[in-house]
Design goal:
Elements lengths: L46 H4 L29 E10 L3 H14 L7 E2 L3 E4 L4 E4 L3 H12 L5 E12 L5 E10 L1 H17 L12 E8 L3 H4 L2 H12 L3 H4 L1 E4 L1 E6 L2 E6 L2
Antiparallel strand pairs: 1-3, 1-4, 1-9, 2-7, 5-6, 5-8, 6-7, 9-10
Helix pairs in contact: 2-6, 3-4
Length: about 260
């Protein structure tokens, strides 16, 4: 079974900023110093003043060196915000112990693997929203998922994933029970995506929690003996059946540096 793609998400740009400085009417540049401006004519704002008031909507500057060498899935453009919908996963101490055991073994095959800082199960691809569409998009999501009940799911199958560009590889735990509930959520998220003319989720998705990642396509090293050994660690881990069972209680939407939470009933 081929690995399902996973697209990373990151903060994107900002809403279009107002032009820096007012436009000067045609012919104004020919007026000599000291002359009064024509009625209604606006003088240009000095750079020293403009720089005192940076835009409050400016997104973070992208620097791959600060992200372990990760490269943007799509180019940065001012006014565009990378947006992602997902179910958050709260890692317990025992889960982190299992993760440490898996990572330690996986690094014997791919030493550059690093642990994820936070955990989630994706309900959407990473898409681009204009800044002024963020709140309408989130409201549409809230309306679509308002009637959904929280549900239980299990993630106990180790699987190797790459993003679409094959520039990053992930070790994940795939959902083995609760899959139908995730499909129902994705169907509603997809409807919102279609309303905003955005890409819907993958066909036949593999819902999972990403545990660790590395730059590049490491499937050759990790699929085969490594994958089998990682699965053995999960199967033999104390109380792994209960440990890897969790509840989906809310949906999150991250757009740039903005976070929105939608609780399930």
């Amino acid at each position: 079974m081929s690995a399902a793609p996973l697209v990373g998400y990151s903060s994107s740009g900002s809403e279009d900023e107002a032009e820096a400085g007012a436009r000067v009417r045609p012919g104004a540049e020919g007026r000599s110093r000291g002359q009064s401006p024509l009625p209604g004519q606006r003088l240009p704002v000095p750079d020293s003043v403009l720089h005192m008031f940076p835009s409050t909507e400016e997104g973070p500057v992208d620097d791959s060196a600060k992200h372990g060498g990760r490269v943007r899935t799509f180019p940065h453009e001012r006014g565009n915000w990378a947006t992602h919908v997902y179910v958050p996963y709260e890692a317990r101490e025992e889960f982190l112990d299992l993760l440490d055991a898996l990572l330690c073994h996986a690094q014997t095959y791919v030493p550059r693997l690093v642990r994820m800082e936070a955990f989630h199960l994706s309900l959407s691809q990473s898409v681009v929203l204009r800044h002024h569409w963020i709140l309408p998009f989130v409201q549409a999501l809230k309306d679509r998922v308002a009637s959904f009940q929280r549900f239980c799911f299990t993630t106990d199958q180790v699987k190797i994933y790459t993003n679409q560009e094959k520039t990053r590889t992930f070790v994940g735990l795939e959902v083995t029970s609760g899959h139908a509930h995730f499909l129902d959520l994705v169907a509603e998220v997809d409807r919102v995506m279609e309303e905003f003319d955005l890409s819907t989720f993958y066909q036949d998705p593999s819902f999972h929690i990403s545990l660790a990642w590395c730059v590049g396509d490491a499937r050759l090293q990790m699929e085969g003996p490594c994958l089998q050994e990682l699965q053995g660690i999960v199967d033999e881990f104390e109380d792994s059946e209960m440990l890897l069972r969790a509840y989906a209680e809310q949906i999150h939407c991250k757009s740039g540096n903005k976070f929105f939470s939608m609780p399930l009933k």
